[in-house]
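Data availability (excerpt). The following record was deposited with the supplementary files.
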Amino acid sequence: MKFSRIGKHTIQCVISEQEITDLGYTLEEIMSNGERTQEFMNQIFDMAEQRFETKFELGIKTVRADFMSDHSLALTFSEHPGSDEMMEHLKDIVSGLINSIPQQKWEELHEARKNLGDSDEDVRVLITIVFSDLDILMRFAKQMRTPKLPPSELYKYRNEYLLLLDLSELSEEEVWQLSALTDEYAADILVGADRQAFIGEHGDAILKKHALENLRAL
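Predicted structure:
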């Protein structure tokens, strides 16, 4: 079990399946969103606070669970910052994604994609960037400077515009460039295939393919 502080408002725990079992839980229990899930998350959060000898102070905590390619689980605990600190909070989220997948792992992901093809879901790195309105999203798209734009889709859900991205082919440097843009333009960042699946099912599709390319052309 490895704890790390990845930002002023964010603590992360990477835990293996065996360590989850040793604590008396199963993967099915902690992913069920039931009472056992809450018990497990509270236990890990308490352990994180003890590890860093600190207490979150800004309010209700949120937790994000991301399965890693080695089948470990990355749990990211964050505070709800005030409006003046929202951009720093977004940095924390993107930083957590990058720290969870170091440069060596990015290279392994790229090699795996070459060997296994795009059908292998385990090597995909998926995020969803939330925008408050279309004008901000279009300005964001025009600022993208990567040589090759990542696969992208655009949905609308509850009056927000959601840009679904697959970052599996981007380098760490390119992801950092992306994080700088999110600091300026994004309202939130969501990580993981489960978030994209929910949006695909419940959101209104605007651009199913090449969303960034189409937005830049407008």
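Summary of structural features: Strands lie at 2-7, 10-15, 62-67, 73-78, 126-131, 152-157, 160-166, 188-191, 204-207.
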